[in-house]
Specification:
heterodimer; A: Ubiquitin-like (UB roll); 5 strands; 12% strand; B: alpha/beta; Flavocytochrome C3, Chain A, domain 1; FAD/NAD(P)-binding domain; 5-stranded antiparallel beta sheet
Chain lengths: 234, 550
């Protein structure tokens, strides 16, 4: 028995059907590493932001498939699991200059016509490790409500579990990406303050002052820094 | 499964609750320069004498860097140049970009805007396109666009935060380009948090004198990265995934002329000849400097520093490492992960085991981190976790007292989700935090146009140094990769239009191996590291080095 096994409570997991003993309390990701797997695929940010470690599992006492991120889920005794190294899902190219929803209220359907095949089974929503209302955003896209599709899908990490489970072959995360870009570009008001500042910079209004800063003696610069006024409240 | 905080920690949480009302709206004086220096000297890991090593070879011989990096810089190359056939060129391109994170993707896009045909660009990346620290940034991006703000104020904040060790021309580029970058993002359709009138919702960050932080909830890095990647896909820029560069190539004129790539799944090598090469490999958090946990992604192993240094690019400021003040200290499954500075921007205070505020919540990062370490190690006012970690409380429920119920759910959905998985409700309970290894402040030396001192090589993002000096402010890394990714991409494109490449060589790798020999360095290590080692001890002890053939 190794030192670990003497000191820690061990549980059994089944990686692609093969049994390993691992310490309780690890995530699926660190448990696989403990067992001896070195990741090339299936591991990205290790913090729940990138969707590289989508994992499918069943536990002994449950008939249902479960889906989650390996880096954010603790291992359980008797877990049968496999990670998805890749999700094949075709993405449609588009020109951001050509997708103004004011000129085309069918823009989502034009690029992803298969959303019309959605049978509202909600399997995508159940598959989502981020608890996103995936079916609702597909339905919003179908109605032409691009902004709602964008808002509902905003926390999407593009792991692809929704699309793998979808009986209608919808590419949820790609269509949601299109909806968000359209929203950011055409639906949200843009900033006047930013526009004004960009023009000031283009007109060279900061050039002299910036030159002075770059050439400033260290002592003077330090003094300026220490005496700068700090906005404390909003 | 962890089920919230254990009972003994609940007792300390009770004290935090008791003092909350009284602390609310109270400020804690910012440290004077001498107080700041004192806490840094005594408690910041960078200021310890141990843990650094002087480089014996290479273009920055004599400089000190963390021991973990020094070991890789004095290691032999992963490859044996005599086994490589450089006459068979697999990809012949104008611009090769090494790294598929934020900086690399921005460089690729701006190479296209500068007139390079996407077919003549190649992005090589170790993991998937987009797998990077850029993806994980939560808090936001700085750019001075408000009326009461200016690029000059941003300049002063950044250079003061860096203790005046930054390169002035690089800070100028960073701050003057900021608003232009945001404008480009608007055109690409990045969704930022906005006021009704379309102006940005902006927050302060540690060390900023104005409200200048633009964010997309606490998924800012992810929103930027997924849009940039989407646009690179639209333009059909070729990407080789799971195929990192392992060495730069040079030509007989001494300029950088591409790279040698390796397919991580087949171990086959590919020769890429390029007129311009952009290094955009990111940082080195996964080296776990001074045994700290890290917020960084799996591939952050400093490969670009190793390849660039061997090719003759000097380095700077690598003796300073950014420890983010607030990494998760509990539960064990997420130790070291980022608790974004935005939590403090929104009003949460760091408090000790007795519920006392002990530092201004928005000091520059190094000072804030040192103050938290002092509270735990120096004053022993920290909370100890069941696995022996120390931490202080970050009192998140204050946010809702200040700005109303629902604010946390709306502004920090990623944080809420992360803690919910482990039975902790951060709208009601504080978060236990301790500093975590976050950012490589220094790196390869660059000029303000993104070129390095070695002809044909350009760099942008975390791999380069000088922009932040010895301490980066919050929100300046997303800006850095956009500004210098863009500049490196444009300069690389311009260079490619007039460059001509001679005979490819790996002589500089042989030379470097010779320097290791001549300096009497004994090493059994090879670098770049490519991937960190986390396999179990027992497995590694029993590992057989046998190649299985079919």
């Amino acid at each position: 028995m190794s030192e670990d096994e003497e000191n820690r409570e061990m549980i059994e997991i089944f990686v692609m059907g093969k049994r390993y003993k691992v310490p309780k309390g690890l995530t699926i990701m660190t448990a696989l590493e403990y067992a001896g797997y070195k990741y090339v695929r299936g591991c990205g940010c290790r913090g729940g932001f990138c969707g590289a470690c989508a994992t499918i599992y069943r536990t002994e006492d449950e008939y249902k498939f479960k889906m989650d991120l390996a880096c954010q889920t603790a291992v359980q005794d008797g877990m049968f699991l496999v990670q998805l190294p890749f999700v094949p899902a075709v993405r449609e190219d588009f020109d951001i200059e050509e997708v103004d929803p004011k000129e085309n209220d069918n823009v989502m359907l034009d690029y992803y016509s298969e959303i019309a095949r959605c049978v509202s089974c909600n399997t995508c929503t159940k598959a989502c490790p981020q608890d996103i209302e995936a079916m609702d955003y597909v339905q919003a896209a179908l109605r032409g409500d691009v902004e709602r599709c964008a808002d509902l899908s905003f926390d999407c990490i593009q792991c692809g579990l929704c699309s793998i489970r979808c009986p209608a072959d919808i590419k949820h995360y790609h269509l949601a990406q299109l909806a968000r870009r359209i929203t950011g570009r055409y639906i949200h008001e843009h900033s006047d303050e930013l526009e004004k500042r960009v023009q000031e910079i283009k007109n060279g209004e900061y050039d002299d002052k910036m030159k002075e800063m770059v050439e400033m003696e260290m002592e003077e610069l330090k003094k300026l820094y220490e005496e700068r006024d700090i906005r404390e409240e909003g | 499964m962890t089920d919230g905080y254990p009972d003994y920690m609940q007792e300390s949480i009770k004290k935090v609750k008791e003092t909350r009302e009284e602390r609310m709206g109270k400020t804690y004086d910012r440290m004077t320069p001498s107080e700041g220096q004192e806490v840094l000297n005594n408690f910041h890991p960078d200021y310890k004498k141990e843990g650094k090593e002087e480089l014996k070879i290479g273009p920055s011989k004599g400089r000190k860097v963390p021991t973990e990096l020094a070991k890789l810089l004095r290691a032999r190359s992963l490859i044996d140049p005599s086994e490589i056939d450089l006459t068979q060129v697999d990809h012949d391109v104008d611009v090769l970009i090494i790294g598929g994170g934020g900086a690399g993707t921005v460089a690729a896009l701006w190479s296209v805007y500068e007139g390079i045909d996407p077919e003549n660009i190649l992005i090589s990346t170790k993991l998937r396109h987009g797998d990077s620290n850029s993806m994980m940034a939560q808090g936001g991006i700085q750019a001075a666009d408000k009326d009461d703000d200016s690029p000059i104020k941003h300049y002063l904040d950044a250079i003061g935060g860096g203790h005046f060790t930054n390169v002035p021309e690089l800070v100028k580029a960073l701050t003057i380009d900021g608003p232009k970058v945001l404008k480009w993002h608007e055109e690409l359709g990045i969704m930022y948090d906005r006021e009704e009138d379309g102006n940005f919702v902006e927050l302060p960050g540690g060390g900023t004198s104005r409200y200048r932080l633009h964010s997309s909830g606490d998924y800012t890095g992810m929103e930027l990265m997924r849009v940039l990647r989407d646009e690179a896909d639209n333009l059909d820029i070729p990407v080789l995934e799971f195929t990192p560069a392992v060495e730069l190539l040079k030509d007989d004129k001494g300029q950088v002329a591409g790279a040698l790539l390796m397919n991580l799944e087949t171990n086959e090598y590919y020769v890429v000849r390029a007129k311009s090469t952009v290094m955009a490999t990111g940082g080195f958090g996964r080296l776990h400097v001074q045994a700290f946990p890290t917020t960084n992604h799996y591939g952050a192993t400093g490969d670009g520093l190793i390849m660039g240094y061997r090719a003759g690019v000097p380095i700077r400021d690598l003796d300073s490492v950014q420890y983010h003040p607030t990494g998760a200290a509990f539960p064990d499954q997420i130790v070291g992960l980022l608790v974004t500075e935005k939590v403090r921007s929104l009003g949460a205070q760091p408090v000790n085991m007795d519920g006392e505020l002990f530092v201004n919540p928005l000091e520059p990062r190094d000072i804030e981190a040192a103050a938290i370490i002092r509270e735990c190690r120096g004053r022993e006012n920290g909370v100890t976790t069941p696995t022996g970690m120390q931490g202080v409380w970050l009192d998140s429920p204050l946010i809702e007292m200040k700005s109303g119920e629902g604010t946390i759910e709306d502004t920090l959905p990623a944080m809420v989700r992360q803690y919910e998985r482990f039975g902790i409700d951060i709208t009601k309970e504080p978060i236990l935090v301790y500093p975590t290894l976050h950012y490589q402040n220094g790196g390869l030396i660059i000029n303000e146009d993104g070129s390095t001192p070695v002809k044909g090589l350009f760099a942008g993002g975390e791999v380069e140094g000088g922009v932040h000096g010895k301490n980066r402010l919050m929100g300046n890394s997303l800006l850095d990769y956009n500004v210098f990714g863009r500049r490196a991409g444009m300069t690389a494109a311009k260079h490619a239009k007039k460059a001509s490449i001679g005979k490819l060589t790996l002589d500089h790798v042989n030379d470097y191996n010779q320097q290791i020999e001549d300096a009497g360095i004994k090493t059994d290590k090879k670098s770049p590291l490519l991937l960190p080692e986390y396999r179990g001890k027992k497995v590694l002890e029993r590992h057989l080095d046998v190649e299985v053939t079919l």
